[in-house]
């Protein structure tokens, strides 16, 4: 069993709450861009397909959209999306310490948010067939900018979510 820190919060619970909150913040940002600017919203079905095809031994795809679909790939993609947010929040708490939750500051959250872009640019997108940093997509610069804005919003979401967790801590609800 994980014990609470001297700041009074279980680090695993904090990582889960902050990661889910930050990921939801990122998704709300994407929804805002869709409604306000008619920009396409991310689809996580290809992420789910990628994860599902890994179970069949295929990590890299020439074009993930041309790979056979798997059952429930959209649901799998969304679950992986939120689990990834939790893992990145746990990374923040590991690097800055669980005490950061009691006194969250914006700089570490934005740093983690921006560093998280390395995963899609150099792992996920090449494995999906999109190339390094979306270089194989028709408008790579636009895709990069949307990714950068999305991951910056995730960083801001880490901070906002930690502030909310802090409010619950101070109220004795966590």
Mean pLDDT: 91
Secondary-structure content class? mainly alpha
Query: Percentage of helical residues?
Result: 55-70%
Strand content: under 5%
Report how far apart the termini are. Answer: 16 Å
For the record, the count of structural domains works out to: 1
Uncertain runs are: 1-6
Order of helices and strands: HHHHHH
Total DSSP E strands: 0
Query: How many helical elements?
Result: 6
Q: Outline, from the CA principal axes? A: globular
Main sheet characteristics: none
Q: Calculate Rg over CA atoms.
A: 17 Å
InterPro entries: DUF2938
Pfam families: DUF2938
What does this structure look like?
Helix content is 65%, strand content 0%. With 174 residues, it is mainly alpha-helical. Helix 1 (11-37) packs across helix 3 (73-96), helix 1 (11-37) packs across helix 6 (140-170) and helix 4 (106-115) runs antiparallel to helix 6. The protein has one domain (11-169). It has helices spanning 11-37, 45-54, 73-96, 106-115, 118-128, 140-170.
Properties at a glance:
globular; 6 helices; 65% helix; single chain; mainly alpha
Which secondary structure elements does this structure contain, and how are they paired or packed?
Layout: H1 11-37, H2 45-54, H3 73-96, H4 106-115, H5 118-128, H6 140-170
Helix pairs in contact: 1-3, 1-6, 2-3, 3-4, 4-6
């Amino acid at each position: 069993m994980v014990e609470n820190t001297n700041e009074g919060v279980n680090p695993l619970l904090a990582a889960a709450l902050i990661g889910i909150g930050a990921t939801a913040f990122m998704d709300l940002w994407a929804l805002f861009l869709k409604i306000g600017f008619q920009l396409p919203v991310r689809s996580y079905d290809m992420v789910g397909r990628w994860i599902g095809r890994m179970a069949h031994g295929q990590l890299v795809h020439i074009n993930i959209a041309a790979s056979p679909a798997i059952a429930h790939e959209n649901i799998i993609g969304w679950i992986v999306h939120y689990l990834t947010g939790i893992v990145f929040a746990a990374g923040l708490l590991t690097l800055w310490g669980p005490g950061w939750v009691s006194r969250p500051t914006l700089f570490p959250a934005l740093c983690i948010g921006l560093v998280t872009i390395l995963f899609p640019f150099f792992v996920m997108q090449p494995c999906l067939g999109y190339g390094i940093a979306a270089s194989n997509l028709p408008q790579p610069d636009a895709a990069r900018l949307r990714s950068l804005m999305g991951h910056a919003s995730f960083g801001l979401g880490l901070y906002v979510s930690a502030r909310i967790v802090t409010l619950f801590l101070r109220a004795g609800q966590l």
